Amino acid sequence: MTILRRLAGSTLLRHLTAAVIVGVVLYVLTYKLDTFRLYQMADVGAYVIAVAGLTVLIGQSGQISIGHGAFMAIGAFSTALLLLHLHWNIVYVLLASVAITAVAGGIFGVAAARLRGPYLAGATLMLAVALPTVADAYQGVFGGDQGLSITVPLPSFLGPAFTFTRWLAWLSSILALITLVLLANLNRSRVGRNWRAVRDDEIAASLSGLNVALLQIRAFVVSSACAGLGGAMYAIWAGSVAPTGYTLTLSIGLLTAAVLGGLGSLPGAVWGALIYVLVPTYLENVATSHGLSHSASAFVPIAAFGVVLMVVMLVFPAGIQGGIRRLLGPAAPVAAAPLSAFRRQAPATRHQEEGTT
Amino acid sequence: MQEFVEFTLGGISSGMIYAAIGLSLVLIWRGTRVLNYAQGGMAMFTAYVALTVINHTGNYWLGFVVALAAGLVLGAFLERTVIRPAASKPPLNLVIVTVGLLIFIEGLAGIIYGGSFRSFPPAFSINGLSIGSFDLGITRNDIFTAAAVLAAALLLAAMFRLTPVGLRMRATAFSPAISRLLGVRVGRMLTLGWALAGLIGALAGMLVTPQTFLYPNSMDQIFVLGFTAAVIGGLDSPVGSVIGGLLLGVVLSYASGYLGSQLVQIFGLAALVLVLMVRPSGLFSTAAARRV
Amino acid sequence: MSGAAGLAATDVVAGYGGAPVLDGVSVSAAPATITTVLGANGAGKTTLLRAIGGALRPRSGRIMLDDLDLTRRPPEDVARAGVAHVPEGQGVITELTVEENLRLGALLQPRPRRAAALADAYQRFAVLADRRRRLAGTLSGGERQILVIARALMSAPRVLLLDEPSLGLAPRIVTQVMELIRQLRDEAGLTVLLVEQNARSALSIADQGVVLNLGRVVAKADAAELAADEALRRHYLGF
User: What is the pLDDT of residues C187-224, one digit of tens each?
Assistant: First the structure.
């Protein structure tokens, strides 16, 4: 009894237990699914990592980014270049890619520390648009339009007969679970509380002694590190890295996934990643079956994301996880309710006050 | 020396495009405090409309006029249907709504017209002009571009300063509450602001697309530079965005000319970040440096 | 604008969320009269004007301009119906010049009349004529108050809602303003609803006085009667 009580008391242990349980379920799943589904599972895992980072940035620290695709690109290209030129062990490559992206995120975070709202969004938008052009400028290093190809050998301890896609699914799931546990702990820690304090009322937070700029930068570092890891995993999954895979559309897609799942919610990030991976192909197929050309159908998911963003922001600001929370009531996992907090900053262009609130 | 002249003149020409986009952003920002991330997308879409007309009728100027009209209509339509309902929501929601609008328009364009790059006719000849044997590095079309944007900016300025509707729009932008007390239909002024922004965006699209080719994402890079121009000038200041655009165009022209044309966007990013760190309210904003 | 108009607010309940500030207030102003609304701070005077002017939507009650129902109409519609609301505090648009502020007010008049209205304003208020090209934000508090009153008159309204026009004005100027309001009632048939802290000067030009306390009407009478009622004056009006 005391063991359970101690488990329930410690946040870290609670999260680890949940992760282990989920991990076991996923493990079993990887022996039940066919190759294609395993491949998709690995894909989802990569996006879970990136979306989780982004949703924490927006939902917990209150900063918007429509440029996280750029950080995924940094992680991906770091991985490719390290593997290609230094032939390191995959673990070191991943760690280094995360570190490089975190540094990039830190630099951007410092530059953007004082920016808010539309200015921050605009700066991240420009990052998303500008960064892929670097690859065009230095085609020798980055492989031009074709990009760089990646081969990650199967770890020897798995044996030569191990299914490659299952290995990808394992790697992706482990990385995703680690990321989610770390982020969940961060959210519950003092840093997370401080983030939410800044998000809710920046002036009050700074008056009570919080170093707002440092907190914002830290949020950027963490979320960009996640994007970098997600990008690295994605690169390993795809087997190649090319600038055409990391466009503005990707950045906005990540945002859509985060919004759909509920900004600030880690379970929501999983929902968002699942939808982001599974729904577009479905939509494209529906479109082609209705007679649209292949080139045109490729744009149906993009248009759908646009509709989702507009509708969710206008009608369901709390996303899927918010809907679940409303259904389940207080028993649901407690995720932040970020957007209600922004009401305090609502623009003062009220035209007619309502006499009743 | 020739290079320098080429870069300067070329910079002025592209700077006017950035100025146009910046101007349309300022128009909307002043009235509604919304940053319209879909502005480039709207311009791209009206260019597609123009191309359809041009291909069907063989008449470039008809397409040109239709594009401008489509810009007006599109701007007004979007303000009433998408932006007005979102106006009472927190600012973060508005950012995401216009971003969603952007990719919706891009997706729609791709669905209707496909994703392939299409060539787009310029208004005037794109042969390089020269004085004697001195290559100026610009074309008749470039001159038209600069003149058209300048004319649009001057017409707008005249409208704002000299006409009753311009006075109403300025009043609405400065103080909607007081304007209402004076009988100004604030909602209509906001719609008009978006309509005019759509018009100018459409103009920018028509002018720049011959260079970028037409495809759903063709205005993305132009948009971010137009945004940078608006920030440099100050989001409150129409004059500022024109000057900011010119400055940006010329500086980027030198940078890309002497240091490598592939890096234009990176230089633009550097310029944006620099301005946002040093003087976020822009060069010409009347408001005190505000952390928005 | 056509002849004088009467204003009637009936059983108005209004507030800002929670308990209402106005709890069933009825005030009527006959055409071409000055009605002054008096009372202590927080009594609901400003809220009443805002409810009539459309800036605040009443929860219940009715607001009629002669036969026209203005209840719950937005401020711009109320203004277009001929009711000019001069709110408390600064109401100038600081980024526009004095002349632009005035011109803005005149836009509700047909085009041929606007120039004459502007000339009238400059004749009546020399201080504005002197500063016509300056940004309204550079004017002193008293000058701004004159500007908002002048601007409200530019539209040739039939009803004028004035919220504490004497605030921040030198006594000499207050007298001038009150004189002007009286003139406008006599010559132009303007109906005025005047909210004032300075009850004495308000009652000296008003035809009717209404006293609010805690969101209710506690006294309604001829201005002269009210001014003579010592007990009431001391209790609610402080003199």
Answer: 889 999 999 888 888 888 899 999 988 888 888 888 88
| Burial track C51-87 (b if 16+ CB lie within 10 A, e otherwise) | bbbbbbbbbebebbbbeeebbbbbbbebbbbbbbbbb
Best residue of A343, A349, A352 to probe chain C, by most C CBs closer than 10 Å: A352
Contacts of residue B6, Cβ cutoff 8 Å, sequence gap at least 6: B135, B136, B137, B138, B257
Residue A162 backbone phi and psi in degrees, to 5:
-70, 135
CA distance A119 to A105: 17
- How does DSSP classify residue A299? T
Rounded Cα distance, A307 and A284, in Å: 16
Residue of C nearest to B164 (CA): C107
CA A76/CA B292 separation, integer angstroms: 33
CB contact under 8 A, B183 and C85: no
Name the more confident of A112 and A334: A112
Task: Give per-residue burial for A31-54: e unless 16+ CB within 10 Å, then b.
Answer: eebeeeebbbbbbbbbbbbbbbbb
Contact C14 A351 (CB under 8 A): no
pLDDT of residue B232: 93
Range with the poorest average pLDDT among A146-150, A333-337, C138-142? A333-337
CB contact under 8 A, A352 and C57: yes
Distance CA A246, CA A230 (A): 12
CB contacts of A118 in chain B (<8 Å) are 34-35, 91, 95, 292
Q: Which two tokens stand for residue A11?
A: 């946040």
Rounded to the nearest angstrom, the minimum Cα separation between B131 and chain A is: 33
ipTM: 0.89
What's the helix, strand, coil split of chain C in %, to 5? 40, 25, 35
Judged by CB atoms closer than 8 Å, whether chains meet at A355 and C54 is answered as no
Interface B–C counts its CB contacts (< 8 A) at 63
- Inspect the interface and report whether the beta carbons of B184 and C74 lie closer than 8 Å: no
Q: Which residues of C touch B177 (CB under 8 A)?
A: 55, 75
Closest residue, chain B, to C101 (C-alpha): B171
- Chain B residues near residue C87 by CB distance under 8 angstroms: 181
Q: Which residue has the tokens 């479109």?
A: A287
Mutation target vs B (from A110, A114, A129; most B CBs, 10 A cutoff): A129
- Please determine, for residue A8, whether its predicted confidence score (pLDDT) is greater than 70: no
In whole angstroms, what is the distance from residue C66 CA to residue B216 CA? 58
Size of interface A-B (CB pairs under 8 A): 200
| Backbone phi, psi, residue B183, to 5° | 85, 5
A315 Cβ under 8 Å from any chain B Cβ: no
The three-point CA angle C109-C184-C8 to 5° equals 80
Token reading at B65: 């006029």
Going from the C-alpha of A257 to that of each of A180, A320, B197, C45, the distances in angstroms are 16, 10, 30, 51
Where are any strands of DSSP class E within B50-201?
128-131, 134-139
Task: Choose the mutation target among C80, C104, C111 for the interface with B, i.e. most B CBs under 10 Å.
Answer: C104
CA distance A150 to A160: 19
Average of pLDDT values for A133-157? Answer: 82
- Percentage of chain C modeled with pLDDT above 70: 97
Token pair 């810009």 in the structure block, residue: B71
CA–CA separation, A299 vs A120, rounded Å?
27
Task: Please list the ranges in chain B whose pLDDT falls under 70.
Answer: 286-292
B-chain CB neighbours of A112 within 8 Å are 273, 276
Query: How do beta strands C34-38 and C208-213 pair?
Result: parallel
Query: What is the rounded distance in angstroms from the CA atom of residue C143 to the CA atom of residue C135?
Result: 12
